[in-house]
Design a protein that fits this description.
The structure holds four protein chains of four kinds. By secondary structure, chain B is an alpha+beta fold. Helices cover about 20% and strands about 10% of the residues of chain B. The chains are: A mainly alpha, B alpha+beta, C mainly alpha, D alpha/beta.
Amino acid sequence: MSQTMITGDIVSRFTQEQLDQNGYTVMNMGPQHPSTHGVLRLVLTLDGERVVDCVPDIGFLHTGIEKTAEVKTYNQALTLTDRMDYLAPLSNNLGYSLAVEKLLGVNIPERVSHIRVMLAELQRISSHMVWLGTSGLDAGAMSMFLYCFQDRERVLDLFENISGVRMMTSFIMPGGLMADLTEGFLDKVKEFLDYFEPHIEMYHGLLTGNSIWLNRTKKVGVLSAEQAKDYLCTGPVARASGVDWDIRRDFPYAAYADYDFKVPVLTEGDSFARYMVRMAELDESVKIVRQCLTKISPSGVYRTDDRKVVAPPKWEIARSMESLIHHFKLFTEGYAPTPGEVFQRVESPRGELAFHITSDGSNRPYRMHVRTPSFPHVQVMPVILQGHLLADVVVVLASVDFVLGDVDR
Amino acid sequence: MDEVIKDLIALGKGLSITFRNMLQKPVTITYPENKRKFPARTRGRHVLHRYEDGRERCVGCLLCQGTCPAGAIYIEPAENTSDNQVSAGERHAKVFDVDLLRCIYCGHCELACPTNAITLENNTAIAGYTRESLLIHKEELLEPKGTSTLGSTQAWDPKPPSTAPKEFDGSETSSAAVGQGNRPSRTKGAGH
Amino acid sequence: MTLEALGFFVAVVIKAVLFSVALLTGFAYMTYGERRIVARMQWRVGPNKVGPWGLLQPAADGIKLLFKEQLQPKEAKTFLFVLAPMISLVVALSAYAVIPIDKDPVNIFGFNIEPWVANPSIAMLYLLGISSLGVYGIILGGWASNNKYALLGAIRSSAQLISYELALGTALVSPLLMVGSLSLRDVVAQQLDHSYLNGDGGWLILAQPVAFFLYWTAAVAEVNRAPFDLPEAEQELGAGYHTEYSGMKFAMFFMAEYVNMFTVSSVATTVFLGGPGGLPVDETQGLVYRLLAHGPHWFLLKVYFFMFVFIWLRATFPRFRFDQLMRIGWQFLLPLGLINLGVTAVGVAMQWKSYQFTIAVMSMLVTLVSLSLLNRKPQHH
Amino acid sequence: MPQLDLQPARALARLLADRFGDKFLGLREDREEITYWVDSSVWADAAGFLKFETDFSVLEDLNAVDYPERNPRFDLAIICLSMKDHSWVRLKTMLAEDQPADTLERVWPGAQWYEREMWDLFGIPFQGNSDLRRLLLPADYQGHPLRKDYPVTGPPQSAYR
């Protein structure tokens, strides 16, 4: 890094003389650019249209969630996690809830775990739909975008049905769920799956066989397995490079141990492999949700009965002094886990999401660190983009599928 | 050349998909002529509820203010007097402000409310030109006099066992705890 | 100046104005149509608020663009910046001058009105020449904006237009060789006055399917439409060469693009689909028969079919990458066009009938396919 | 849930003790998570040992915690994953204020941004990091916001208050 100006603005890794000598241009891609999927800034050094060097600049969406969580009670901090990876809030909720539960040592009823699996997989479908739509759009296939968003809308309708909001649901809470499933929810999920499954075929028809798409993605943005491991890549990005690793299978959380699913792994490591891995994951998610439907009863217990962690039902506080006290204690103070720290990882749609929560015995997290999947994926961009054309940049960005809220937190 | 033929077939497949989709009915709704139906649990703008006798449900316990992750609620409680019995309990909320610009619609306030006084209802068309217009006060939050609804409470809560009282009237619990004052308890052995 | 010459002059001016107005209105409703059709392909409704079924949407857009603030980057070269969209639009409109929208002059109120603005014997050359001028608008606009994205768009555009010009030209030479004239009126007459089976007429798409395919592919690239819309690839370049343009200057680029679409569709119609020709009936039987046989409505119908294909392609396909685009142009379209031209030349020399051309061209294709099947090698990047 | 088997953890602790002597400070098990403490002087070496000589070759996370009243002030932790036997360990060290930690960039290139983040938010300097600039915050930002003595609402003179 030869040129770091006093203001800290990154220009390029090259000096002005080097740029002039080689005839390179420096081009700012972002933070306002249609294809950086948020507010990522890439400082590209171009030789014609060929990328010589790329310096990612992040932090435009830094909201200080980790700091804010330190002054919120555990339950309040849950609402912050929604806003990190805003395309997969329920996965974030799940990771956070599992971490807090581990910190507290609470046991979660089996039905809750199954519902959590179902919601997390539906979330994966919705998140992958955004990825598929935007990566289609970035390559110029504009209808893909609207088809995929329509399918995502259907998933969000489901979330709205149970939680009242479409995106920032906060539905999975430490100790269980916010509420029980609504009446007929499982039927709606089934209806959605029946509607959605043929659409996967449609997407394959629109893109997978299309030679333009193949040409745009094959051998573009190749990441080797070694690089993937060295740069902490996880999830579909690593799996497309041949790293056979999936938290759902290898560190089963919630009720994933009870489910039968495959972990798609490809070895090419290019954008097309990432595309195919995610497409296969869609199939697997549908499969998992179908299994969920057979395991979940339409109504029943939806949170732990540990009154120190979750509030008693409303009708009970009108009857029981103790419940009323629990209710008040929980909503004023919350709960205070014993000192210690936990590291809890889940497989979010983008890869490994881990909550590293340190407790000092108070009712607020002493420190909450989030290992987000997107963060290392942005870091690896210069490695992947080296020597590609400008048009490949957007395809690679889309195929890696990061969310800037997740990167900057 | 054979690849070209294969490619052309694949391209044709894509074209046929978009053509078939053109013949489908659009999935969008023309707003504002048509509005979609919100599910019962929709978390929109807050509403403060009343009992059937017109008294406010809110007893000014500050639980919602305390639990709000965004700090969007501000309450100033005041004592009820015998000639001005605003709420069912001993105290009521003199000031009840919700800053809709801060609110994140997480629903924690309705979870926290012991008397089901505050709920999030399906009014999602919230907009304003000034910050002040989006800081709404008790008068805007309260449902009009003469109406008494439970709002989305029933959509969230598990159904109580049939023996449970239908709504909170303070009769079966420690009334002091929710600001019911020293009104005599109708049943013996409140608590368990 | 004689009275006759003056009359001719006035008629040409009036026709030119009429054509321009028709094209610009057509452009406006084309944007509307495109938005509606693309919307339907994407399960949406499209613009439906302004006027009945949204029919006044183009007018609303026009008014908005007219009164929109004209922004200009501080470092832009003002003169060229303003000139560039004008070049684009003027060039696009003037290309239409030689396209006949009907077969013969029409007699209205005793005036013999020719359904074209001009009918030079080198119409095709004029078309090719003038359409390659359009690139100047794009290059100047992209360069004068003083914006790297715009410049990249302009560079892409110039390389693309120049490359595809060749393929386009080669594809057009084959049918013109069969007709033996560069005049578009002759091309139309040839297709309408003789029959395909008898040997020396019929729609040229039947005799020259490969040329048609090549022409259409090159034409899509020539007018920068998806999947060849690299110069304005919004996902990569913001908006490409017109990134910095706003208001009416942007609208001019926009108009130029759509008018160019009309032009290439019209050329495709004229050269390959028999232009204004309709059903094979005897036109001397009366007005109805005449309308069934040929007329501007047939011409428009075919043009709109091509416009629909433009929209359809745009809604479906991802965009090519620049090097792939170049490879298609130089390594696929151009060689195929040359082979096709060779076959056609031989046929013309040997005075083949129309269907013999079809057979020859198709068998050429089959030979190529089987050769490549025999000689398959791994695809390299 | 089955009880955690501590045998492999103790074996690894012995290996670390053999290698680093009294610089290896011990092993702690809490909530079924294994933490190895090392002295900050062997931080990068211990990480390298985990990567190259044990199965724990994949870095998952780098985290710091600030204890302002304590000296040394910071906890620095990495999480190392073994893809082979599906287990993981946490390696921790303590750092005084302004005491540089050795960079892990040479062990895992991907640690670079994580270290930049910790420098940015905690002010922990990493010796040998090739590009130790602020990552999330603007380059002219004053202070390190994740330190406990940094007010949540920003410094009093801050424009963002």
